[in-house]
Amino acid sequence: MYTHRRLTCATPKPAARLDGKQTVVVIVVLVLGVAMALTGMPVIVVAEVLTACGLIGAHVARRAPSAPAGL
Q: Membrane-spanning regions, if any (predicted)?
């Protein structure tokens, strides 16, 4: 029988855990997806809407540090 041995130099990394802000984002996206699905929207449309909103949010989040301090 094979015994699964790991090399000493290849120790597994601990699992990354979500912080509070990331957890809130995941919960909000899930709630919005369920709400849209319950209103009768097709699953494909729900996925497209959530994807578009995620791409827009990522774009805005990357541009935020370059905004003037007064805004």
A: 23-45
Which letter, b or e, does each residue of 17-42 get, where b requires 16 or more Cβ atoms within 10 Å of its Cβ? eeeeeeeeeeeeeeeebeebeeeeee
Q: Considering the chain, what percentage of its residues have pLDDT values greater than 90? A: 38
Question: Has residue 51 got a pLDDT over 70?
Answer: yes
Kindly tell me the sign of the dihedral angle through the C-alpha atoms of 45, 51, 52, 53: positive
Model-level pTM? 0.60
Q: Measured between alpha carbons, how far is 28 from 22 in angstroms, rounded to an integer?
A: 10
Secondary structure E strands in 1-71:
none
Whether residue 50 contacts residue 29, with contact meaning beta carbons closer than 8 Å, is answered with yes
Amino acid at 30: L
User: Computed over its alpha carbons, how large is the radius of gyration of the chain?
Assistant: 20
